[in-house]
């Protein structure tokens, strides 16, 4: 018999996957061109030409240990290249020792949480949030605590202050944000850092800031990315190349440790060990050889921005209450009825697949993932309008 804990997790499994699986079922029943599936954040743009060129070159190489084990943290040259890029972003002195190459951002998040959590330690998340955080925290015997967001879908820092306790060990942030598309402004980081510094002193131990940032290169309308490393010393940052290089299936990312973090040497040793003992062993060797040569490349962000403009303007003109995304490829409108599950069911009946806000612990909203072809967006807009009018009449 499987564990009771896992049985509970299966019952609470991701709405995103549930809707994706429903979409696959509907496509088989009605035909792929009849179903408008916005359920899964699976980047659809082709990887950049630079990546394809470098991949071919590296894949053609032969020799001993090209595909063998390496140091737990990854190839030194890869970590040096990542450290140099982070140094430019943050104006801090990153070195290769501050980088652990991981199996995607999910691997990085698990390495970080395993490194810092004792059983019963609390981790604060702002709802709505990527629901896999629940499982990552539970993996390492942590306790999830939820803080609120404002009506503009930014972290409510008053709520955060009220949720911090003597058991608080970490706060997770995600900017640009999945599912809202919001990019956190500089003043929010400044205020957040002040709260964490004050509360760390008050409770007598470090509260870590764990930043999950796989979308940091997908930002629109001249909005600016702000590195959390600039504002708070006790920061760990998880990154993935899944989104900006369209490499979701290749599982390559990294965990970076602030050079100014408390107990730096212990944190470096812990993350290096955990990357092995969690079973990841190493990040994929071929991808590690490719990444240093394509760090400045990215997919055509203008395509995502064009899609964002089309769907945001359409929903806004229809009458939906929606905050314009500043990044990612998600938009998170308020449901025109209180019951987001019922509303997404009504859309599903018309063969439009979205994810209810309940799946992100934010009832009353729904998520649209616009990493889809333009024809999917164009085909769905009349249905969004029809169902909106149906519930409003």
Topology overview:
Elements: H1 4-11, H2 15-30, E1 36-37, H3 49-59, H4 76-90, E2 99-102, H5 104-116, E3 122-126, H6 132-139, E4 143-147, H7 157-163, E5 168-173, H8 186-203, E6 208-212, E7 235-240, E8 253-257, H9 264-277, H10 285-290, H11 301-318, E9 330-331, H12 340-349, E10 352-353, E11 355-356, E12 366-369, H13 374-392
Parallel strand pairs: 1-10, 3-4, 3-5, 5-6, 6-7
Antiparallel strand pairs: 2-8, 7-8, 9-12, 11-12
Helix pairs in contact: 5-6, 5-9, 11-13
Word description of this protein:
The protein contains 13 helices and twelve strands. It is an alpha/beta fold and 393 residues long. It has two domains: 4-47 and 299-392, Alpha-Beta Complex (Aspartate Aminotransferase, domain 1), CATH 3.90.1150.10; 62-293, Aspartate Aminotransferase, domain 2. The strands form three sheets. The protein has a seven-stranded mixed beta sheet, with helices on both faces. Strands 9-12-11 form a three-stranded antiparallel beta sheet. A two-stranded parallel ribbon has the order 1-10. Helix 5 (104-116) packs across helix 9 (264-277). The termini are far apart. The mean pLDDT is 95.
Gross morphology is: globular
Query: What is the radius of gyration computed over CA atoms, rounded to a whole number of angstroms?
Result: 21 Å
| Secondary-structure arrangement, i.e. CATH architecture of the largest domain | 3-Layer(aba) Sandwich
Strand order of the largest sheet: 2-8-7-6-5-3-4
Given helix and strand content, the structural type is alpha/beta
Q: Can you count the beta strands?
A: 12
The chain-level mean pLDDT equals 95
Q: Profile the largest sheet.
A: 7 strands, mixed
Beginning-to-end CA distance, first to last residue: 51 Å
CATH superfamily of the largest domain: Type I PLP-dependent aspartate aminotransferase-like (Major domain)
Please give the CATH class of the largest domain: Alpha Beta
Overall tally of structural domains:
2
SSE series: HHEHHEHEHEHEHEEEHHHEHEEEH
């Amino acid at each position: 018999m499987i564990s009771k804990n896992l049985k509970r997790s299966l019952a609470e499994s991701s709405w995103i996957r549930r809707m994706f699986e429903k979409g696959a079922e509907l496509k088989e029943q009605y035909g792929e061109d009849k179903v408008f599936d916005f359920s899964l954040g699976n980047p659809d743009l082709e990887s950049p030409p630079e990546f394809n060129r470098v991949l071919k070159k590296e894949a053609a190489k032969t020799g001993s240990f090209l595909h063998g084990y390496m140091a737990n943290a990854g190839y030194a040259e890869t970590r040096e290249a990542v450290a140099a890029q982070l140094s430019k972003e943050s104006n801090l002195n990153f070195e290769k020792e501050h980088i652990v190459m991981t199996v995607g951002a999910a691997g990085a998040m698990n390495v970080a949480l395993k490194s810092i959590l004792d059983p019963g330690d609390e981790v604060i998340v702002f709802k709505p949030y990527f629901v896999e955080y629940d499982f990552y925290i539970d993996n390492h015997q942590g306790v999830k605590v939820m803080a609120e967001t404002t009506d503009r879908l930014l972290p409510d820092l008053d709520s955060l202050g009220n949720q911090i306790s003597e058991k608080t060990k970490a706060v997770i942030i995600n900017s640009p944000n999945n599912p809202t598309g919001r990019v956190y402004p500089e003043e929010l980081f400044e205020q957040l850092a002040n709260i964490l510094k004050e509360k760390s002193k008050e409770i007598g131990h470090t509260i870590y800031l764990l930043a999950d940032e796989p979308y940091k290169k997908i930002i629109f309308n001249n909005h600016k990315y702000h590195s959390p490393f600039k504002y708070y010393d006790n920061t760990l940052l998880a990154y993935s190349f899944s989104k900006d290089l369209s490499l979701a299936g290749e599982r390559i990312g990294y965990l970076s440790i602030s050079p100014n973090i408390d107990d730096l040497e212990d944190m470096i040793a812990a993350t290096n060990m955990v990357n092995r003992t969690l079973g990841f062993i190493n990040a994929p060797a071929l991808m590690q050889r490719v990444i240093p040569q394509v760090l400045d490349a990215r997919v055509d962000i203008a395509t995502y921005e064009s899609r964002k403009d089309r769907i945001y303007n359409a929903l806004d003109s229809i009458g939906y209450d929606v905050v314009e995304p500043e990044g990612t490829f998600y938009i998170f409108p308020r449901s025109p009825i209180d019951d987001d599950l019922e509303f997404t069911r009504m859309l599903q009946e018309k063969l439009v697949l979205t994810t209810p806000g309940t799946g992100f612990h934010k009832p009353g909203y729904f998520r649209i993932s616009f990493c889809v072809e333009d024809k999917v967006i164009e085909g769905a807009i009349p249905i969004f309008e029809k169902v909106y009018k149906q519930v409003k009449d």
